[in-house]
Amino acid sequence: MDLRKEFVQANRRAREMTATHPHATSARYDRRLGRVLIELSTGIAVAFSPRDAQGLEGATAVQLKTIEISPSGFGIHFPKLDADLYLPALLEGLLGSRKWMASRLGAKGGAARSSAKAAAAKRNGRKGGRPRKHAAAA
Predict the structure, then answer these.
(1) Nearest-CA neighbor of 50 among 73, 31, 68?
(2) How far apart, in whole angstroms, are the C-alpha atoms of residue 58 and residue 51?
(3) pTM recorded for the entire structure
(4) Tell me: the pLDDT tens digits for 17-27?
(5) Beta bridge partners of residue 77, listed in sequence order
(6) Pick from 64, 69, 87, 66: which is nearest to 17 by CA?
(7) End-to-end distance of the chain based on CA atoms, in angstroms?
(8) Which of 24, 36, 20 is nearest to 87 (CA)?
(9) Which residue of 21, 66, 96, 122 has the fewest CB atoms within a 10 Å radius of its CB?
(10) When comparing pLDDT for 130 and 8, which is higher?
(11) Domain locations in the chain as residue ranges
(12) How many other C-beta atoms lie within 10 A of the C-beta of residue 121?
């Protein structure tokens, strides 16, 4: 396939996606709410806390003030942080790479408190704590 034909097909796919999927029309950081607000072509607004998005976790209000939208409307760029978010993934609730999201979920799971977990910790404490791992005999 020649380069010109690939270019025409890519532009056609982009036009189709823009016509059938929501895309960003504006984006800003609301300092009062502590949220990034994105207005979509559908009239719906999406808001999220920067601490929940990969690359924005420790950002200051000054760093979040400038937000750029890609020409397609599917990319959100924070130039002062050199961080990017892909709008279709954001709408699916994915605020980072799979590895980053898994680490966030794992941290939450490990911090969970339940009566069963508390009871198990008490039982282990009475026995002297968590059993030590022993190396397998060769």
Answers:
(1) 31
(2) 6
(3) 0.62
(4) 777 788 999 99
(5) 68, 84
(6) 87
(7) 59
(8) 24
(9) 122
(10) 8
(11) 3-95
(12) 12
